[in-house]
């Protein structure tokens, strides 16, 4: 029987806690205790505690080595632990945990938690690679923390995946219908993070950040967020008779009037625009000038109105899917170059009078009417020479300065 008081005096002090921890770890791993353990850089108090335990001073030096068989004999001979060192460690620290069995049990719990998701992805093989990445990255485990928490989370994720792509349903209503919580897909929610990663895999969108990017990802799988506030300005899109929005586009084109489409319309209505090319500009002034000067004779034109919104990106992707080529122009300033990089990096567009030669020629023609370029330079992904020419000339050329040239192209 363990002599608790004697055992505590021999082995339970703070200065021997490292020794107890080392022995317990070896026992949990199923390792032999017929060995010695070493503590590098031991304190004088730790060395003194070992001397009291074994009755002899440790070997000189900074490292402290303790023979576990010697400790076992002391514990048995003193009567503190007739069961020896193993019995003493259990008495001091509690019953052992079988780490291998515990790890296997935990892994089995995770597998059970992932079962609904694997079943859902089995019906959507295009997500197989995404699911493999979700497992290897550990994202779901980090977000959930434990298998018991992960179970409901991954079940909700599976339910959402089965409904993707959706048919243009508002985000809150979609979340409430599938999870019972209208805010389950709000920014920062674990489920929203996981669904967004699946949506990106389904739509092929690249990485990004920010509210507008998230809105774009949701729209790419038919889920609407701020569907009435996000919009896109257009002029001259042919439209089609299959939907109210398509018919409205056709009527506005015939009347030479711009059209403002909401994200809701772009996602939910069938807009089949058959045109070989679409011009894309940055500023609404180009659209208003084209409506005034060209009216119904204007080529199809879409305006990003600065950084492109989710409505802009979704419409442009739909136009590309229908066979249109995108031709883009923006302001020749550093902000305009940043916007251009977004357009050219994320869409199959080509420049429209938006290169180094175009900038240089226009700067020479209007140099008396343009102001100085300022701010940190930005390299143009579509024309690496553009940034250097802009730095050399040092002038801002906005679309208002070249609107006549742009209208000439739109009239053809």
Automatic annotation (TrEMBL):
Superkingdom: Bacteria
Family matches, as Pfam families: DUF2399, DUF3323
DUF2399 domain mapped to chain residues: 260-410
Domain Conserved hypothetical protein CHP02679 N terminus: 35-238
Protein name from the UniProt record: Uncharacterized protein (TIGR02679 family)
């Amino acid at each position: 029987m363990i002599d608790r008081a004697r055992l505590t005096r021999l082995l339970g002090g703070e200065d021997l806690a490292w020794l107890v921890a080392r022995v317990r770890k070896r026992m949990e791993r199923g390792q032999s205790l017929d060995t010695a353990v070493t503590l590098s850089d031991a304190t004088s108090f730790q060395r003194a505690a070992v001397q009291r335990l074994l009755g002899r001073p440790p070997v000189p030096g900074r490292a402290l080595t303790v023979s576990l068989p010697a400790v076992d004999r002391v514990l048995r001979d003193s009567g503190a632990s007739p069961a020896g060192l193993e019995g003493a460690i259990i008495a001091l620290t509690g019953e052992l945990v079988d780490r291998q069995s515990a790890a296997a049990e935990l892994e089995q719990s995770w597998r059970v938690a992932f079962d609904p998701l694997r079943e859902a992805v089995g019906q959507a093989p295009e997500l197989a690679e995404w699911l493999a990445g979700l497992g290897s990255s550990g994202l779901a485990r980090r977000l959930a923390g434990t298998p018991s928490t992960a179970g409901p989370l991954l079940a909700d994720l599976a339910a959402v995946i089965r409904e993707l792509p959706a048919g243009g349903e508002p985000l809150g209503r979609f979340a409430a219908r599938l999870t019972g919580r209208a805010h389950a897909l709000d920014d920062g929610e674990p489920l929203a993070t996981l669904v967004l990663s699946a949506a990106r895999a389904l739509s092929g969108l690249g990485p990004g950040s920010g509210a507008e990017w998230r809105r774009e990802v949701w729209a790419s799988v038919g889920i609407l967020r701020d569907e009435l506030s996000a919009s896109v300005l257009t002029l001259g899109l042919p439209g089609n008779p299959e939907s109210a929005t398509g018919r409205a586009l056709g009527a506005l084109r015939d009347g030479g009037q711009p059209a403002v489409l909401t994200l809701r319309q772009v996602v939910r209505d069938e807009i089949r625009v058959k045109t070989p090319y679409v011009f894309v500009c940055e500023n609404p002034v180009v659209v208003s000038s084209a409506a005034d000067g060209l009216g119904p004779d204007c080529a199809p034109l879409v305006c990003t109105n600065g950084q492109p919104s989710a409505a802009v990106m979704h419409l442009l992707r739909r136009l590309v899917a229908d066979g249109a080529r995108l031709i883009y122009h923006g302001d020749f300033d550093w902000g305009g170059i940043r916007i251009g990089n977004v357009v050219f990096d994320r869409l199959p567009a080509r420049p429209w009078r938006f290169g180094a030669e175009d900038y240089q020629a226009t700067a020479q023609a209007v140099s008396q009417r343009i102001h100085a370029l300022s701010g940190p330079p930005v390299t143009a992904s579509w024309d690496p020479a553009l940034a250097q020419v802009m730095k050399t000339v040092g002038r801002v050329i906005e679309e208002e300065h070249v609107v006549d040239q742009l209208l000439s192209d739109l009239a053809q």
